[in-house]
Design a protein that fits this description.
With 405 residues, the chain is an alpha/beta fold. Helix content is 32%, strand content 24%. A hairpin with a 3-residue loop joins strand 14 and strand 15.
């Protein structure tokens, strides 16, 4: 049975972080050592990020909060709110992004009645509350209260793939199933000043965003799909369990992102791809660059560099991942869906290896464990052309106040 991705939409919060200005704020914090200050400059400058988005509206010099909790613009100080304070903001602000992305995805599927949605899968690793985002989406969108709801929590940057895989399984089991998948992450809630290299790296990379998709196996000839969901695989690398982790601390969630992670990915990416590519006989043994599109989760510039070098991919094949990183930063689970959206917006081209009526997409994401999730898709139509200034406007967000400016 063929399972189709019928729509894929993205959303980001309104406050923009300018990377160079955020760097200057972090580098000026009084508790930094001389080495810490140098690490801030190095990590922010080498991240290949221009702009990011945050749901913490207080992270702007225009904020006039009487009792600032994250950033005191008058003193230029980053503050350290408790995990409860951060999570309370998550419950409010993440709900907005979950609902916005979900509504956009549903509205982008012509002819879909909201009562047709049978399953809802929500994803996030940056906060918790209950009734959760699945419940909030059902109420806000007026979905059938009997819709089957599932939440994938605290899995990290690769979690969009288990969500899409679950959606495909639901559709394989029931040809009439219509699944709404929504990922929303507020990573910026957990940034803090520190001399710890992992914390500094997280502050330089992570951002907020959401993405949502509608998946169905229903044959609808008058409503072209965007792509098919073909195969998924999961691989755990033999090393790296301590190199990438996500823990809960008293002052927010704590990212462990060791500097050796790109090298672990470089060493094991070929083996991680083998189970996926073996699912399609036409892809076995061909040069990786012969697969036209590569939707790689941009966990950081060095990760993209290692993947490109190891797989001998062209610069053009890395554009969707690098542009997503440049415009949005690392939004954890939602990020790879932004990359796929970028690929779907590209103009069509001639056939490539493994294509049957479409352009093949090989996708991958990395997360704690070290876990490598991979997927094969087929782009089967050319959707609308990208809008001008594909950064904030692509996500439906006007140029808003600039944070840490």
């Amino acid at each position: 049975m063929t399972v189709y991705l019928r729509s894929l939409e993205t959303a980001v919060p309104p406050t923009i972080l300018i990377q160079s200005e955020a760097r200057d704020v972090f580098a000026a914090q009084p508790g930094l050592s001389r080495l810490g200050s140098r690490l801030v400059s190095t990590c922010f400058d080498s991240a290949a990020i221009d702009t990011r988005y945050t749901a913490v509206g207080e992270l702007t010099t225009r904020s006039r909060a009487e009792n600032p909790q994250f950033f005191d613009p008058a003193a230029g100080l980053l503050l350290s709110p408790s995990t409860k304070v951060r999570n309370d903001i998550f419950a409010t602000e993440a709900t907005k992004l979950f609902i916005e992305a979900a509504e956009k995805a549903v509205d982008a599927f012509p002819g879909l009645d909201r009562s047709d949605i049978t399953h809802l899968v929500t994803v996030s690793c940056t906060g918790f509350f209950n009734p959760g985002p699945d419940y909030k989406i059902v109420r806000a969108l007026g979905l059938n209260p009997a819709v089957q709801r599932y939440h994938l929590g605290f899995m990290g940057c690769y979690a969009a793939f288990p969500a899409l895989r679950a959606a495909k399984s639901f559709c394989d089991a029931d040809p009439d199933a219509v699944v709404l998948v929504v990922c929303a992450e507020l990573c910026s809630l957990h940034v803090r000043t520190s001399n710890d290299p992992d914390t500094i790296m997280g502050s330089a990379l992570f951002a907020d965003g959401a993405a949502a998709a509608v998946i169905s196996a229903r044959e609808l000839p008058d409503q072209p799909a965007l792509m098919t969901l073909d195969h998924f695989e999961t691989v755990l690398t033999p090393v790296g369990e301590e190199a990438m982790a996500w823990n809960i601390g008293d002052e927010g969630f704590e990212m462990v992102l060791g500097t050796y992670v790109p090298h672990i990915i470089e060493d094991h990416i070929i083996r991680a791809l083998e189970p996926l590519l073996s699912r399609d006989a036409s892809l076995i043994g061909i040069p990786y660059r012969d697969i036209r599109h590569w939707a790689i989760h941009p966990g950081g510039r060095s990760i993209l560099d290692k993947v490109q070098s190891r797989l001998e991919l062209s610069d053009e094949q890395l554009v969707p991942a690098r542009e997503t990183l440049r415009n949005y930063g690392n939004m954890s689970s939602a990020t790879v869906l932004f990359v796929i959206r970028h690929i779907l917006d590209l103009d069509g081209a001639d056939g490539d290896a493994g294509e049957v009526g479409g352009e093949r997409i090989c996708s991958m994401a990395f997360g704690p464990g070290l876990t490598v999730e991979t997927a094969l898709f087929t782009k089967i139509t050319t959707p609308r052309a990208p809008e001008p200034d594909a950064g904030p406007e692509r996500a439906g967000v006007p140029r808003a106040e600039q944070a840490l400016a």
